[in-house]
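Morning, I've got a small favour to ask if you have a moment. It would help a lot if you went through both lines with me. I owe you a coffee for this, so here goes:
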Amino acid sequence: MTNATVNNFTNSDWCLDINLTKEEHLDSDSLDVDVVIESIIVPIVGSLGITGNIVSILVLRKKEFQETFHRLLICLALVDIVFIVCAIITCVIRTHNLLEGYHWRIWEPIFLFSIPMGSCALVTSMYLTVSISVERYCGICFPLQSRVRGGRRLVIYLLPVLLFSLAFNLPKFLEISPDLGIDWEFSHNVLYNKIYKQYIELLVTVVLPWLILVYLNFRIYLAVTDKSLRMIERSLSGWNEAQRQKREKSLAVILISIVFVFLLCHSLKLYLAFYKIHILNKTVHCNSLGQAPSHPSWLLTLNTVNHLMLISNSSANFIIYCFMGKRFRQSLLSTLSDCCRIRTPVQSSERNSQSNTNQTTETSFIRNTNSYRMRKV
């Protein structure tokens, strides 16, 4: 970095005092938009997403959903719930200024741990989607090999994702000091901000997932829509094998829908990641001065919208299952109908027991009357 660039940063107010509040950094319009999104829209969307994921787990635990694909969807729903909860906690604490209140000692550790936990859940969700794509790719393109080798077991797809996500997000947990504060020396380290937070994070959270998901799902789409391949499968396989192939392709359609929504909701994150690389020198310079980089208000609002889109992605899978999954939809409707019928048999049995009691009482009364008449005679 040249001296002219450094002087330009210093004289252009690109660095701000880190102790200033958010209200002092932003104008009122952008602040109002951020508050509305983070304090109202995010909790509503997140609550609906948590409810949808819980319902998805309850439905996918049934006996008719025993494939590895469905078990991975359950794991994805659990991880999405963790991410949504962490995102709601951070948004509520930030918008309500709970770190500046009387109970800041309680809220600060919760806030500090929610950020790396949410990041860990987000990375796990990304690469679980990649694992589901790999599982479908093996099931569609190499069905015989995947069954013979047993390469579609749950642990093979889940364990590497969990270990990788924990290892990648470990430095973010190290930003928390032993006294449950922020380790400013570590978090402002030049190499840490330049290499890990910029280049490695761009590669791991944007470039690799996008390339792998686009390639695998494009291959899956070609395999599903290949008419000549379907004719060969129908001629060589029996009825049971044809039914299995039909089920495999229906699961592939669900996956393609999940990935499409994933790419759509992560598109803004793609732009922001490359923008962070663009202003890398500015960020490193401000951190070396112990200050925060100043960004335009529209960029901070865009970052808030990005958080909302990520939460929406974690909340949208239930809707995709309902619209694209016929078996899921039928199982959900049967579950709801069973829940609605729980009270009906109980009420009818109570009514029958009451009627039997009344009939017994009336019969005994008649019998007692007849016996009384016989005695009188």
In short: Residues 104-141 form the longest helix (38 residues).
